[in-house]
Structure prediction request, 298 residues.
Amino acid sequence: MTMKQPRPQPKPVWLRKRLPNGKTFESVRSLLQGSRLHTVCAEAACPNIWECYSRQTATFMILGDRCSRDCGFCVVSHGPLLPPDPDEPARIAAVVNRLQLTYVVITSVTRDDLPDYGARHFAATVAALRGLSPPRTIELLIPDLMGDPDALRVIVNAGPDVLNHNVETVPRLYGSVRPQASYARSINLLRQAQELRPDLPTKSGLMLGLGETPEEVEETLRDLLSAKCRVLTLGQYLQPTKRQLPVDRYVPPEEFAKWQERALEMGFDQAACGPFVRSSYQAKNLFEHLTATLGRKK
Prediction:
């Protein structure tokens, strides 16, 4: 006898967004498409894409639009993989200049097929952005690089202003959420980044609503703090398509507010927690608040 699958939960009212109108969204989308660039906004079906594009910002995704892994939560396409495009860093710099972005977030698909896991391509992209005037603030959201310390050193030495790596969920759920990843590897990557460059702010995030318990979330936050992670993001997991993991629970905004308060009590310098928060959502504002916080601590 076949068990019936549970019916999908209806989205609560706090997850309903009004879509912005206007020509800015279409002009940004056309510019990105015409420049043959990918964004995590589009490829990962981010719910904030209308808002971000309409504010003339985006999170650039380098190293192609296909990933060497197939995580249970992610809608980004899986294989076959192409070699890195050597012209991509220059195209990103040109679009950043065209959009007059002052804060740039660069992420990538995971490329376990590459000898350096894409580290040199990250470094080349940072170098291209550093050639712009006026200077830009650069945040890199990197994969786990299979724990390779040499690859991490290449990225850290490239000189980003913020280094972000998401643990995504609590250790118990890795088997279904991130089956090809390692929780310990991700925590260690953040720790190693701080050892390589203690002045580099590190950042990480989790999705809530996958079946984690409050105790597990708190323990994960303690692990991040032990790795000297300074900035935390917590957001609601939303199932992109029926192929990805179902939502276990929709976390209400007031619970996210309590997590934000708790994270700051525990010792994070900055925390952004809310249903629509993503690791790069309003990253510039979070960085500016972090800089102010660190300035007060000196």
Summary: The mean pLDDT is 89. The chain has eleven helices and ten strands. The first strand starts at residue 38 and ends at 39.
